[in-house]
Amino acid sequence: MRQRHSSVTDIEIIEDFSSTARCDEGFLRVRRLRCRNRRADGSSSPVYRVDVVDRPRLDAVAVLVYRRGASGLEVLTRMNLRPAAFFRKDNRGAMTVPDPASGYLRVEEIVAGLLEPEDKGEEGLRRRAAVEVHEEAGFSVKPEDIRLLGGAFFLAPGILSEKVFPAAVDVTDLSPEEPEGDGSPLEEGTQLHWRPIQEVLDACRRGDIPDAKTEVALTRLLALPS
Questions:
Q1: 197-206 helix and 212-223 helix, angle to the nearest 10 degrees
Q2: Both ends of the chain: CA-CA distance in Å?
Q3: Cβ–Cβ contacts within 10 Å for residue 103, how many?
Q4: What pLDDT, in 10s, does the model give residues 186-216?
């Protein structure tokens, strides 16, 4: 699989405008709420604060791209720039268990993308999954080729409203084009790798691939009847 080589070694913060930005603007939106629990007997709990993080596009689809070879199943992963994971290094003093010394400039994960308003129901999920596979992996697949892997799941339900819908697609015998990507700086130097499925799953469980949607998709695919 071809790779987009890059010499990116760091992400520089040009401005931190957290103190002046509104919580309802930007890619992520924070709703700051005061809430109380209402009980069946008519009583209520004390008032407490809740922060809820939303995105303009609420949910996402994650697609495990795989192929069958002489040695068994192989899966495609992407090494992506992930600033939020990278800037954990600025909070090392708060870590109870230290991160690897190298940090997380890139995170290895499977193909994924946000669901658009027109992506309604299972048909919309399959269509968006096929679009993301072509954009991020270069394979032209049809929506009907997409296999949904059960129900959606929350990544961090204590703060994030987003749910991820897991899916998979078999690209055995298909030849990829050069992935288009979305043209953003965050896709600079994205690298694609084919790896045996058990190798990737083991890496997830060791924490070498610290991406929950990747592990969920892998385990659900492996749990399907052969």
A1: 140
A2: 26
A3: 14
A4: 888 889 999 999 999 999 999 999 999 999 9
